[in-house]
């Protein structure tokens, strides 16, 4: 409850300061990663401007019944504890099979030094997530690659 109140207060302040319609909705309030350590370190990459994109499994969206983000969507980025730190705006969506990801694409996530390290870390992530959500990771799995910009800190 406290988390939701903090998010709503943060969102309301963003709308007020930017003279936006108070009925404007955000796409989601979320953190990156599956663990506290990863979520908080990825947040630091976002806040520093190094992380400008994220990769998700299309199958995870389907398993959870969530719609895909669209260009122009606004999302609140939180730390692991749900404290809001910034608002990001989706600037592009690219959907490719995992095996077709290139370093030119995934470097925008700001997390890895090579395509090989990206494939290793994200393959593990998608395998763990798939186990929890009921899908089995494969090289054919569609990856939803979302580019974003920070519009509020």
Into which percent range does the helicity of residues fall? 25-40%
Number of strands: 5
Poorly predicted runs? none
Number of domains: 1
SS content category: alpha+beta
Distance between the termini: 23 Å
Rg calc = 16 Å
Helix count, per DSSP? 5
Q: What features would you describe in this structure?
A:
The protein is an alpha+beta fold. The chain has one domain: Sulfate adenylyltransferase (Roll), CATH 3.10.400.10. Helices cover 39% and strands 25% of the residues. The chain contains five helices and five strands, in the order H-E-H-E-H-E-E-H-H-E. Strands 1-3-4-5-2 form a five-stranded mixed sheet, sandwiched between helices. Strand 3 and strand 4 form a beta hairpin. The mean pLDDT is 95.
Which properties best describe this structure?
alpha+beta, Sulfate adenylyltransferase, 153 residues
Produce a short descriptive summary.
This protein is α+β, with helices and mostly antiparallel strands and 153 residues long.
Question: How are the secondary structure elements laid out?
Answer:
Elements: H1 2-17, E1 28-30, H2 36-48, E2 53-57, H3 58-64, E3 74-78, E4 84-97, H4 103-106, H5 115-133, E5 142-152
Parallel strand pairs: 1-3
Antiparallel strand pairs: 2-5, 3-4, 4-5
